[in-house]
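During the second year of the project, the team shifted from modelling isolated chains to modelling whole assemblies. The rationale, set out in the original proposal, was that interfaces cannot be judged from single-chain predictions alone. As a representative example for this report, we include one of the complexes processed in the last quarter. Its constituent sequences, exactly as entered into the pipeline, are reproduced here:
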Amino acid sequence: MNSALPTSAQWAALMPILFPALAAAVIPLALLDRDAGVQKWIRAGVYAVALFALGASFMFLAELGKQSSQPSYQQLRLDYLAQFTGIFIVVAAALAVLQSWDHFHQEGWVKGETISLLLFSVSGMMVFASTTNLLVLFLGLELFSIPLYALTATLRSRSSSSEGGLKYFITGAVAAACFLMGIVILYGLTGTLDISVMRLQAGTPLADPLFIVGIGLLLVGFLFKVSAVPFHQWTPDVYVASPHPIAGFMSVATKGVAIVALIRAFPGLTAWGPVLGPKVQGVFMLVAVLTLVVANLTALVQTSAKRMLAYSSISHAGYLVLGLVAGTPGALTGMLFYLAIYLAMNMGAFGLFTAFGLVGEKDTYEDLRGLGWKHPLMGLCAALILFSLAGVPPLGGFYGKYMIFKELVATGHVNLAILGVLASLVSMGYYLRFIVALFLQAPTQAQEREATEAPVIQASLARGTVLVGAILVVAGGFMQTVLVDGFAHRAIQGLLGLR
Amino acid sequence: MENLLISLAQNLFPIFGLLAVGGAALMVASRQAVHSVLGFLFAMLCVAGCFLTLEAEFLGIAQLLVYAGGIVVLFLFVVMLVELTKYKEKDIFQKQTKVALLAVAGGLLVVGGALRNALFGPAAKEALTLRPEITNGAVLGNAQAVSRGLFADFLLPFEILSIILLVALVGAVVLAKTERV
Amino acid sequence: METLASLLHTSPATAWMAVKVLMAFGLIMGIAPPLTWAERRGSAMIQDRIGPNRAALFGKIRILGLVQALADGVKFFFKEDLVPPHANKRLFWLAPLLAFVPAMLGFAVIPMGRSFLSGGTEYHLSLLDPGNGMGMLFPMAVGAMAVYGILVAAWSSNNKWAILGGMRASAQMVSYEVGLSLAVIAIFMVTGGYDPHEIVKAQQGTFLGVLPNWYVFRQPFGFLVFFVCMFAEANRLPFDFAEGESEIVAGFHIEYGSMKFALIGLAEYGHILGASALITTMYLGGWGIPFVADHGQIPVIVTFLVFLTKVIALCLVFIWVRWTLPRFRYDQLMNLGWKKLLPISMANLLYFAYRMRG
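Output from the structure prediction step:
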């Protein structure tokens, strides 16, 4: 019976997932003490435990990468792509945890359990990103979605919070149901749950129309998490409803793992054979075009900066899906690079709200007036991050887009590349509006008065994370070769080699 | 009479299946929340019946125990507590009804078209066969087969599921807890 | 068996099935009315009263008031069948059936006697033959369905007492089911299966030399939990929160009268019988005679009578407890269920799992 226990090599595959999960399981127990004096220390302890777990997970993944080992356990396989994604998620979560310390103290309430949920979500994402088994994929999806539903609705006193949480939950449940139905159909047709085995059976079942329905339902589930356009309506409401750090984490990590899962499921066009391949590509093309057009145009007319960032994150999903349309190894590598930069940009952008001490529902452009001059360093970081989001040349965001557009042109999708460039130009409009509000608009007198009366904003941790984001954005522009050759390229090579 | 019974027994699976769909339709269509829950219960019972006709007795009984005996009771409990009668007068599907019907019809067409092969193709006449390892007696019974699946082949998903349950608990705590520093 | 089958012009299997169905239903229907009598006379004895003794056949034959049950039956038939105007009519009709059917179904897998050979075929004294794959899970699952009868009756009556009673009953039944299941799993584990025939077989012989090899002695804590939970599942005092005369009048069946009420009442006694049969099979050796390891030579009818004796004795215990213990308060009930019985049954399960480690 003891042989059922994982061996040490198999434990290695589980460790990075177990660290956050264990920490998340311990944290709610620590919070049982209701004594006010002790609670302050417990809170600090909770954050320390969370950071420690994330750090341990990070170290472990980095060590695995250094030793070039790809451990696996049952349906879980921690290959290079999974390791890359794991580090991506852990970094995003660590930034979110640091920001949330400041944000929750600014808001005036701290529930330690939110950190626990965040960590559970991290483990779920890692599971989601490191398997090809559809069943485990679905469980990973649920494991990272359910905590996010609850996190969105944490602030019960605000009605928009409950609204966002409920919307997210219901739409998410429908998407999960579609995903599950797709799995059922595919399993019924092929008799396997493993999507990489499924691809190998490129014989009769692939021509079956039912197979296409199954793949379509799977895509609904994925694209919902990517928040690409026909399935994007939840995004703005949910991001606005969530606390700022959580919104940042959701926009980065959810999208990131969903894109990685898409890369895993649809690596290149030849993967699904001559019949299905072009069809899937057509779907991606349609989704990308819709996403770019709708998201960028809607983002232009927003009055809330946070809502604008939500639409901007939808539009970035469009650029990422464009990479899937091209489908070459170069494009997939570009997507991973894009994701890494996107992590820095969006965690930074959402972190700005905390760094400026904006609490409650103060997330409009009006609330941002003149803040750039008040906090010069943060203003500079904001400018860098926003220019990078728009894709201004020397910064990281530009190279992400460049790598994807280059492959698009190389595969003959010149129109799409042009559309992408146009979309970037449009996006310049709303990002500039953010910067204009920060630097060129003087605060109103009411705001001035409020600012003098309000206590000093405690946001050193959040400012640190924004600074890190800005540095990464700049570094991504000048030292992209390290990131691309060192990690992204190897991950994609490993994945395609597997096939 | 005997013939009728035999043909009835042979077609138990489609009968239960159709009844389950009927229960699900009742659940969606009825105005009273309690009626909806009872429709759901009926659908669950029929699904358990489907499992039984497929010689998956353990699964059928588990379905009864977990869904009919546990989950639906809680649904009914909550529905009765919340008392939705004041919304009874309102037509909750005011505008959506037609759109929803159209969408359902469209979905049925798509899936039905896709299922055409499976339903009326050459393979449709073949009888359902049990998995060979069960008929060969390699696995002793239902419970053994299920437990081997759960605790050996799919141990990892099983453990992930247990974490998901824990997450649901913590999530409920977060949503119910009052906010304070 | 063959002669019976040929008389009925069917196969022996069908004939035997018919016999078994008649037997199971006859048992429940035959025992339930005397049980009501036993309850009333028993309560009278315990409380030092006389109890019903007026009803008489032809004005003469009284038989200690046993005829009262008959009179009640006649009364139920001839009373007006009333549906309150504000009730939800369809569900109001459905509820007694929902209560009655699960109470009857639970018996389907209980073996009421030794299996025997006749004409080369083995016949079993349970409606479903062993190896049906459902085993003891079936009565548990069906027992779990009983709560719907109460909930639907409560809700459809559209009466505040009824709703209160239904709520309490359902919360109680759901809570106690958890401890119950965990206690039962320990038995399944030790037996190595959940088929009632296996469970009964595993309880034959002696334990420690002086006791019958019954699970009640081998797993006393499991038995304690199971026994208490069975009271809760059957909604009997001290767990009769669905009714609780002093607080919510008659609880969930306050609006019911005539035959519908009779069905609900029958369902209650069916539950008592079912609970007794379950306890007998799981913990008291089923149809097995204590200390006897090999039942091969013992006549079938003796094993059946042994089973019947155990069941009826347990039914009397149910009545005895009802009139001896006071009712719990609601929070005490929940405390007992979640904070005491559940940990006990968990510890019980873990202990036996530990003992079974490979």
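The two ends of chain C are 45 Å apart (CA to CA). Chain C has 13 helices and four strands.
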